[in-house]
Protein 1
Amino acid sequence: MSLLSLDSIRHVLARLEETIIFGIIERARFKRNEVIYKPDGVGRGLKGQSLVGFLLRECEKSHAKVRRYTSPDEYPFFARLPASILPIVRLESPLRPNAINVNAQVREIYETRMVPLVCEPGDDGQWGSSAVNDVNLLQAISKRVHYGKFVAEAKRRTQPKRLAALAAAGDEAGILAAVTDVSVETRVVARVRAKAATLAQEFGPRPGRYKVKPAIVAEIYRRWIIPLNKEVQVRYLLACHDGDGRG
Amino acid sequence: MSLLSLDSIRHVLARLEETIIFGIIERARFKRNEVIYKPDGVGRGLKGQSLVGFLLRECEKSHAKVRRYTSPDEYPFFARLPASILPIVRLESPLRPNAINVNAQVREIYETRMVPLVCEPGDDGQWGSSAVNDVNLLQAISKRVHYGKFVAEAKRRTQPKRLAALAAAGDEAGILAAVTDVSVETRVVARVRAKAATLAQEFGPRPGRYKVKPAIVAEIYRRWIIPLNKEVQVRYLLACHDGDGRG
C-alpha cells in the first residue's frame, strides 16, 4: 500500500524531476538534428523508421525480454514487443487493470515541441548521441506522465464517492477539475525551475550561464508534463470507476 | 585537425565530467543489487550472462547497426557485433590505426570497485533500473577513458622525437612519466569534486546533504578514470611510434 501513500508518490515524482532535468541538459548539448526524427531520415536501412524510432524500439525489445514492462510504473512506446526470457514475477500492483498509454502523445510532443525548445536549430552531425539521449529522456518523461495512474488511484481511494459519480456521468471536465490543484502545480513548476538553476549551470569559463535556461525546463513541465500527467489521471478515473471499487 | 587541439580535447573531457557525474548520481539511487552482475544471477534465460552484460550487449548490438562504433571516439565492450544497416561513412580520424580497447578492465573495475563505492549495500529489487543506469554510465566512462587516444595523438605530434624514442625502446614507465602531469590531474580531480558538490546536492527536505558524496566522485576519477585514460595513452604511444609518424 505504501506505493500509494502521497509521501511515497511525491518522493518518486520529485526524484524523477532530477532525472528529467539531467536528460534535458544532456540533449541540449546537441543541435536539433531534425533528420533523426524523420522516417528513413538517416538512411533506408531503417525501413521507414526514424533513427530515434529505431533505437527506441530496439531498446524496448531488449528491456521487454527482461520484463521491464511487467512493472506497473513502466509503459512502452511500441506494441508487439518480445516476451520476457526471464520468469515473470507478478508484481503486486495497487492499480486497477487498465490499458491506458499516452506514449504516442508523449513522443509526438517531445519530438515536435520539446526538442525545438531545448536544442539550438541546425545539424551538428551528432545524430547517434542525440538519439541515444532522446531514448533515455523519452523513457523518463513517459514514466513521470504515467505515474498519474498512481496519483489517480490514491485520489480515488480518498474521495471515492465524488470521483465515482463524476466518472459514472462521463464528466471529463469535472474529473479534470477535481484532480487539478493549481497551488501544487505552481509549486512543482517553481521547484523544477529552481533545481534546473542549480543543475544546468555552466561550469568553468562561462559562470552564471546555463546549459539550458531554467525557464525552459519549467515551461516543459507547465505546458506538457503536468497536463499529460493529468490526462492520464482523468483517463484512469474514467476507466476505473465502477461502484464497488473494482472498476 | 581541430579534434586534436588541446582546447577541443579539454572541452570534450570537461563536458563528459558532467555526464559521468549525472550517471553516478543516477546509479546511487539504487542499492548495489549484486545479483545483476552475476552470470545467470537474475535467471537462466540469459544463458550465462549477467543482467548488465545482457543489456549492455543488446544495447551495443542496436548501436552497431546504426554505426556507433565507426566513430573514432566510441569503443564497444563486446566483439562480434552486427554490421551497420546504414551506409558506413568513413569518418576522418586523426588517430593512427590501432586496436586498443580497455573496456574489459573498465567493466571489471566498474562492477567490482566503483559500484560498491557509490551504492549502499543490499538489494532493493530495482534490478532493471540499476542495470539500465549501469549501461549508460559504463558507456560514458569508456568514452572518457578511450579519449586518451586523442590526448596521446596530440602529445605525439607536439613532442614526436622524445615519445618515439621512448616507444622504440619499449619504455612503458618512461612513457607513463611523459604523459603524466600531476598538477593537471590534481586540478581535474578538484574540479570534478566541485562539480559534484553542486550537482549531487539533495533538494528539498535534506539540504546540505548529497546524493553521492563529492569525495567519492573525486576518488573515482583519481583512482580509476585518470589512470585508465593514461593507460590508453601509453598503449597508444607504444603501438603507434614508428619514425615517420605513420606508426
Protein 2
Amino acid sequence: MIVSAAQEHELILSVLTSRGARPDTADLQARWLVEADLRGQDSHGLRRLPILARRMERGLLVPNAEPVMSWAAASVLTVDGQRGFGPVTGLSAVRHAAGRARQAGIVLAAVHGANHLGILAPYTEAVADQGMIGIALTTSEALVHPSGGRTAMIGTNPVAIAVPARPDPLVLDMATGEVSMGRILRHAELGEPIPAGWAVDAAGEPTTDAAAAAAGAISPFGGGKGSGLGVALEVLVAVLTATALGRDVHGTLDAEEVCNKGDVFIVIDPAVLPGGSHLAAVSAYLEEVRATPGQAGSAGARVPGDRARAERQRRRRDGVEIPGPVWRAASALGPGAAALRDSG
Amino acid sequence: MIVSAAQEHELILSVLTSRGARPDTADLQARWLVEADLRGQDSHGLRRLPILARRMERGLLVPNAEPVMSWAAASVLTVDGQRGFGPVTGLSAVRHAAGRARQAGIVLAAVHGANHLGILAPYTEAVADQGMIGIALTTSEALVHPSGGRTAMIGTNPVAIAVPARPDPLVLDMATGEVSMGRILRHAELGEPIPAGWAVDAAGEPTTDAAAAAAGAISPFGGGKGSGLGVALEVLVAVLTATALGRDVHGTLDAEEVCNKGDVFIVIDPAVLPGGSHLAAVSAYLEEVRATPGQAGSAGARVPGDRARAERQRRRRDGVEIPGPVWRAASALGPGAAALRDSG
C-alpha cells in the first residue's frame, strides 16, 4: 500500500507516545524510520517499529532517557545512551561533538548504551549542513561471515561519510555486507532465489536459496577487502566504546536483550584548515563524476548520496510503498488498536 | 633473483645518498621500499626507486627538506612536506600527532607537499606500537573508474587502520581499486590475461587483456560500494589537505610534476576512554576469527595484517625475490654504476 510520509510519521508517533515516549523523543525516532522508508532503505523503516515497541514494553528501551555525556579528553566525548532511542542519543552526541569541533578541529564521540541508530546518513548530513565533515560507524549483531569463513562473526558494520559540496553534500552510507538481511528475507518470503555471492547457508556453503541464506550468513561485500574492512570497523568501534564484539552483540534485532553495540561519530571542521572546505574544487569534481559517460547497460557513475536523495524526493511526492503486513503490524500497535483489543 | 633485505637496503641507500640525501632521510625512505618488498607489496618496493631518483635529480623531490608543521586547531596538525620524501614527512606527522593525542584523545594530521608515502601500514603500526589507534589515507593519480563509468577518475585511495591487540595488532591496508596497476602491468609483461572484473580498456569496456587494461582503468573493488568509498575518500582527503582531485593529481608515478596529492593521518588514544584499549576482548575476538572453520578451497578466515606479517617473516629469513630487470635498473642508478658510466 502507498502512504504519505506524514501518515507513516503519525502512526509511529502514536505507537511510541502510547508507550510513554514524550512527543519530542517520539518525533525524532519516528522521523528516522520514515527517512529510511523515504530513501528506499526499508529494512530500517517501519518494519523496525514492532521490535522498538516491544523493547519499550520490556524496559530494554527507555524512551525519555537523557544521554549522559562527558568529555574523556579535550576532543573525545563519551556518551552513555541510558537505553534511550538511538536517534535521540546519536543526534545529541553529534551536536555536542560539532559544537566543540569548531575550536578543536576534530572531535570523536563514542557512544554506548543507545538503542539501534537506524540509518546512519542523517547523522552525518546534520554535520554537513553546518559545513563540517561527518563520519558515523556502528556495530550490529554478527550477520556477516569473514571471507574464507563459514559462519557469521561480523556485524553489517556500516560506515557513513558526509562531505559538504554544492549543490548537495557527498553522503556515503554503506554496510560492509554484500546485502542486508532484510533483502534476503524478502526474497525468501517471495520464494525467489538470491544472486550468487550474497550469502552462505547454515553449513557455510555458498547458496542462492534465500531461505537457506536466512539461516546462514551474509557474505562480505568485495571479498577479502570488504571482509577486512568489516573486521577492522568491528574492532575499531568496540575499542572506542568498550562494547561487545562479534557474536556477543545483541539488542538491535531482538526484543530480549539490552543493546550492547557501540556507535562512533567523528566531526571535522574544515574551516580550521588553510584551504577551508575546498568547496569549489570538490563540487566541480563531483559534477565531473556525474557527467562521465556511462558503461553500456548502467545508469552511469553515481556520487554517493545522489540516489537516496532522488528516491526521497520521489517518495515525498508520490508516497511511500509499505508492504501490507508491515503496515498492519504497525497499526496493530497503535492506541486505537489497543483499545479495540481491550474491549474485544 | 633473491637478495637479502639488507642488500636491498644498502643499494637504495647508496642511490639516494649519491643524489644528496642525508643518511637519516635516505635510511627512512630505503626502509619503506624494503618493507613493501618484504610484505609482498612489490608495486611499492624497489621498482619505485628509478622514479624517486629522477625526481631528486629534477628537484621534484628535495631529500633533506624539513616538513613545516603547524597546529591549525587544538587537534588538527597541518603539515607541508616541502617536497620531501613521503616517509620522512609522513612519519614526522604521525609522531607529532601521536604526542598530542595523549592529551586530546584524537588528532588529525593533514599533509600536503610530500612525495609518495609508499605503503601505508607502517605509519599506523608505528601508532599501534604505542598502544594507540592509527588511521592513514592518501590520494593518488586517477587510475580507477567509478562504478558505471568508463574512465579513470579516482585514485587507488588506500586506507590503513591499525588497532592494538595481542599478540599482534590488527593492521588493515587496502586500496579501493580491485587490483594494483603494478599487477596488471606484470600480467601484460608476461603476456597473461587478467581475471574478469579487474579492469576496463581505453574505451571503458570490461577486458581480460592485460595490455588493454593497462591503457584503460582499474575497476573499483566491490562494485558500487567500493566505488562510493573510493570517491568519498578522494573528496575527504582533498578537503582536509586542500590538494588536487581526480585527473588533476600528479607526481607519484611520474618524474615530471610536483606531487600534489594529499595524505591524512588520524591518531586516537584509547587510554583516555573509560574502557581503555579493550585489549583482552579485542584479542579474543581476533583469535576467534582466526580459528573459525574455513570454506572449502580457502585458506580460512584472516585477520587484516596477518598475511603481510607472515610474508615479512618468510622473506626476512629466505630473502626477497626481485625481478632481474628491477634489480639491474636500481643498480644502474648507484654511485658505482655512475662512475662506470663516467669513465666508459
Protein 3
Amino acid sequence: MFNWDDIIATPSSWLESAGGDAEVVMSSRARVARNLTEHRFTHNCDNAELAEILDGVRAAAGSTGAFAESRYAPMGEISSLDRQFLAERHLASREFLFNSASRGIVFNEAETLSLMINEEDHLRIQGLAPGFDLESAWRRASELDDGLSAQLEFAFSDRLGYLTACPTNLGTGLRLSVLIHLPGLVHSKEINKLLDSLRKLNHSIRGLYGEGSEVMGNFFQLSNSTTLGTSEDAILSSLNEMVGKVIGFEQRAREMLFRKAQRLLEDKVWRAYGLLQFARSVNTKEALSLISAVRLGVGMGIIKGVSISSLNRLLVYTQPAHLQKFSGTTMDAQARDEARAEFIRDTLAHPSGETD
Amino acid sequence: MFNWDDIIATPSSWLESAGGDAEVVMSSRARVARNLTEHRFTHNCDNAELAEILDGVRAAAGSTGAFAESRYAPMGEISSLDRQFLAERHLASREFLFNSASRGIVFNEAETLSLMINEEDHLRIQGLAPGFDLESAWRRASELDDGLSAQLEFAFSDRLGYLTACPTNLGTGLRLSVLIHLPGLVHSKEINKLLDSLRKLNHSIRGLYGEGSEVMGNFFQLSNSTTLGTSEDAILSSLNEMVGKVIGFEQRAREMLFRKAQRLLEDKVWRAYGLLQFARSVNTKEALSLISAVRLGVGMGIIKGVSISSLNRLLVYTQPAHLQKFSGTTMDAQARDEARAEFIRDTLAHPSGETD
C-alpha cells in the first residue's frame, strides 16, 4: 500500500498548472469502461470472483508502462475517511465509498491516470488533464487501455462494441468530460437555455457534485451522453467543439456583465475575496460560492496576484476528508469549517509556488 | 464666514483621541437651552426679530473667551449640502436643515464647543468630549453659559428655573448624553430589558439617528430625561452613575459572548473587517453595521492595529455630505456608496496618525 503521507505531502501534481482556457475550464477527463470476457459483471459476482478479478487486473496494470511507478489503494482495507479522501481527489467514485470489499484503485503519482477495479464495470480507466485538454486526458486513458488489452481479454461485440454493465456505456465505453466554470452564464440567467440546448444536442451537463445534485459555485460537468454507434474520435471532436462554443458563450456573458455592471461585479468579487481572507469559519457550500466569485475575478483580471491554479487547489483541498487528513485528526463539521477558513487564509496569504 | 476648506482639511480634533472607556462610549455631550427675556420664543418670532436675536447673541458669543477664535456658519446663506455637513458633525441639529433663515452656529476650531442660535430656543450651547467624560462636556458648556449670561439676560423663573420653548427642557435646560456602543447587549438580547429599566429610571435612550429612528450599528444615545426640579450637579452625577452601570453590563455581556461563542464572534468580527477592506460599494446602513462589528472586535482585542478613534472618524466621515465635501462634487447614492467604500479601504489600509 502506498504511504498516505506521500499523497498528502505531494498533492495532485496536475493541480500545479491550470492548463488551457483555465479561466473557464478547470479540468478535462476521459473515462473508459471495460469488462473481462471470462467473468460475470460485478453486480453478479460474489466476493471470491471479485477478488479474482481484482488480482488479475491489478497484476496486468502493474506490468504496463503507464503504471511502472504506481500507487495502489485497496478500498476494502482502508478507513472510510481514506476512501472519502480518494473520492475528493476524483480517484474513487462515490460507489466505491460504500462498496469497497475486493475493490481497488491503481493510480500514477501525478494522479493523471487511474484505474478503478470492480466498480460498476470490471475496469474503469480514467485519464485527467488540467484545463481544456481532452486530447491529453483521452490519450492517457487510451494508452493504458491498449496496454491492458494486450494482457486481458475485454468483452466486445462486433455489433455493439465494448460490453458494459449499464447499457448507457455500451459501444466505445468512453465518457469524456470537462469541469467547467460558468458564473457569467449563471449571472446572466442564460444558463438554463444553454443546459436545455446541450441536452437536446446529446450532451450531458450537471452540477459539480454529480447527477441530481444542487449546482454549487457555478461549476458544471459537461460530457458526451452517447457512447454507442459512434467512434472515440467522433466523441472527442464533438465534445471539443461543444466545449469551445460554451467557452465562447461564457466569455461573452462575462464581457457583457463587465460592460453592464462593472462596479457591481467588482464589488461582488472583492467582497468574496475579503471574506475568504478574513473569515474564521467557512462551510463547504459558502467556500465554493466565494472561491467561484474570486475565480471569476481572477479570470477577468479584476483580482491580480492570485492564480487560477491556487484556486483550483483550494477547491480540492478544502473538502472535508482533505482537511482531516492534512490535520491528522478527525473533525466535526464546526472544526472543519474553522480549519477550512484557516487553510484558505493561509493559501491566499502565501501565493508563492504559483506556476501559472 | 469660515473657510470650508479648513474644516474639511482639519477635521474635528476631538475625534483624534478616543477618550475614556472608548471601547463602549464614543462621545459625551452637554446641551444647555437658554432664552432671552427681551424676546419671544423663536416659534413666535418673525424674521426681523430672529435676525435681531442672531446679531445680539453672535456679538455676545464673540466677546467670550471660549469663542475668541471661533467659526461662524450662517445657516440661511449656505447650501443645503453644507447644512447637512454641519448636521453630520453634530454642530447643527436636524431642525436647522429645514429652518435656516436668520439662524446660525458659532463653534470653536476643535468643535468641542458650539452655539446654535435660534433653534427651538434662542441659544443652544453644546459642549463635547470624546469617550466617557461628561464632566469636560459640561464644563465647556457651563463656561460658555457663564460668559454669555454676563452679557445677555436669560429668561429665568425663581420657581421653575430657566424658561424654555418646550416644557421638557424647563429648569436646568440641561441635557447630558453619551453616544454609547452596545453590541454585547444587543447580541445577548438583554438590550430591551435594559432600555425598559433606563426609561423607568427617568433616563432616555434612543438609536443613533435620534428619536423613533431604527437603531443602527448598535449605537445608542443615553441621556437624562428630567431637567426640572433638580440641579446640574445632580443630573451629572446621576447620568455618570447610570452610564458607568451600562458600561459594566456591556462589558459583562461581551465577556459572556466571548466565553460562549468565541469562534462565532471572531468570525463575525473578521468578516466585517474583510468586507470593509475589500468592498467596492457600501451603503450607510451596512457601513454602520460593519464598523460596529469591527469596533467590537477592536474593543475586545480580537483585531489589533486598528484604533477605536480611526473607527469613530469613519463613522463621522463616511456620511453622505462628508463624502461629497471631501470629493468636491455632488454625488448620487451609488457614487456615494462607492466613495464610501474607497474612503473606508484607504483608512483601514493607512492606519497611520493614530493617537490611541
